[in-house]
Amino acid sequence: MGIFKLRKNKRFGYTPRYYKGDTEGSPFEIKHKFDDYRSTAGSMGGIKTRFNNAMEDLRGNPNKAANRRILYIVIVLLLVFLFIIDFDLSIFFR
After folding, report:
1. Closest among 49, 27, 79 to 57, alpha carbons compared
2. How far is CA 3 from the centre of its chain?
């Protein structure tokens, strides 16, 4: 056994007991539950590509109430953040 040699991993030819062929894909494939329904899950790219995919996913959402709820949550969190850092909101009003 050499000092600089790495051990090789053992390989096993395991097949599950009740697995009947490749009807739904491999049983060893790790896949998220909602990957088939999201356009943003599979593609990897730059930040611009990710942002564009997320915006398309948001616009294509048929549930407009959820989009409005997300907008309200973002506004409330932004106001809480501005309150924490003592931002003066009076510059927007006369």
Report:
1. 49
2. 42
Q: Write down the residue that tokens 């407009």 correspond to.
A: 64
DSSP 2: -
- Cβ–Cβ < 8 Å for 58, 67: yes
Q: Which of 93, 70, 73 is nearest to 81 (CA)?
A: 73
Half-sphere exposure of residue 49, counting CA atoms within 13 Å on the CB side?
8
**What pLDDT is recorded for position 77?**
95
- Report how far residue 30's alpha carbon sits from residue 11's, in angstroms, rounded to the nearest whole number: 19
Question: Which amino acid is it at 87?
Answer: F
At 74 the pLDDT is 93
C-alpha R_g of the chain: 25
Q: What tens digit of pLDDT does each residue of 34-60 get?
A: 766 666 566 677 888 888 877 887 777
